Amino acid sequence: MADELVHYEVRRGIATITLDSPHNRNALSSQLRRELRGHLGTAAQDDQVRVVVLTHTGPVFCSGMDLKEAAGASAGDQGVNEFPAILEQLWTSPKPVVAALRGPARAGGVGIVAACDIAIAANEATFAFSEVRIGVVPAVISVTVLPRLLPRQAHELFLTGEAFNAQRAVEIGLLNSAVPVDGVDAEVRRYTDMLALGAPRALAATKEMLQRERSTNLGEVFADMLELSARHFGGPEGQEGITAFREKRKPSWVPAED
Q: So where does this one cross the membrane (predicted)?
């Protein structure tokens, strides 16, 4: 629809969600938040979707919360109250989520990047935790950002608000890859092709495992991991994967070639 700020398209098992509000640098307005949440929910529930790609139109990936909407609103009426739900959707999505940036991300936009499983940016993209410079705290985004960043770097960048480039974002763990802008699509396709080789339930379970807090009791951890491993070895996906390997064919879940 012409008045949409977030578009949704599924092709070859890839759901592409596109932020399309360039007039305000894809700021997290109430409409954009609502549509983004809806499309993420649709992708999570669609068995035909194997991977989600989150991208954008315009020169900026996402500039953070919409400050025009935030001005004059009380603490209880701030749009940031809805933001944790979006980050949680991305973080816990059973489908791997790939962020594709051709331009800058700021504040909440960086939180979104960190919440995705894979993040790819053009070399020209820049990042900043600019909250302290306007008198607010990068609190909500810290939930997804801090697990990605090296601690010393996190202190520096959260406290100074200084902008940093894509190469440094790779070095500190925020991005997986930084490439020339005309190579972003190819790099995204490289990752989505690899992710599509994974079994859907195994991918979801692996993602959950990676995010799980673990006991300090090594025996308990091994017991939990053994149960998870054995369940999937003996499950329908595991058995199909083993059979396909022995028969030298692709498993049934691998998408057909174009």
A: none
What's the DSSP call for residue 251? -
Question: CA nearest 155: which of 171, 172, 135?
Answer: 172
* Strand pairing class (97-101; 118-122): parallel
pTM of the model: 0.93
**Domain residues for 53?**
6-195
Residue 253 lies in a domain: no
Q: Are residues 204 and 183 in the same domain?
A: no
| E strand map for the chain | 6-11, 14-19, 51-56, 97-101, 105-106, 118-122, 126-128, 164-165, 177-179
Specify the 3-state DSSP secondary structure of 176: coil
In a domain, 254, yes or no: no
Sign of CA dihedral 189, 42, 116, 230: negative
